[in-house]
Fold this protein.
Amino acid sequence: MKNAALVLGIIGGVLALMMAFSINGWMVLTDWFNNEISNSIDPVQNAQRLRIIGLIAPILAIAGGAMSVLRPFIGAALMLFAAAGIIWGLGFGVFTMFPIALCSLGGLLGLIGALTREPGGLDAHRK
């Protein structure tokens, strides 16, 4: 469970990072196009919120995935915060559904892994 949370958190964070790069690139392109060529494209609404979520959510997801093996509660919380931040900041759409799903599933598996003890796992020596 914890290893699955690790993989899902890191993949979800990388997808969220690519999504953030795309959103930031679109904002730069529309600003440039409106300033240099014509004022025909509507500017991006809530650009600062998009930039903040685009920075924080991938970091939370990747850090949560990396922490999920040794500190599963903290890792799961970080991945769930990343998923909630993406939903709040960007909404649920075509490009956000996979990072949201992967981070949410990674957080859920991290919580389940924290609540269960696997035989022969890292906690086996504490008996």
Summary: The helical segments are 2-36, 47-67, 72-90, 97-115. The radius of gyration is 18 Å.
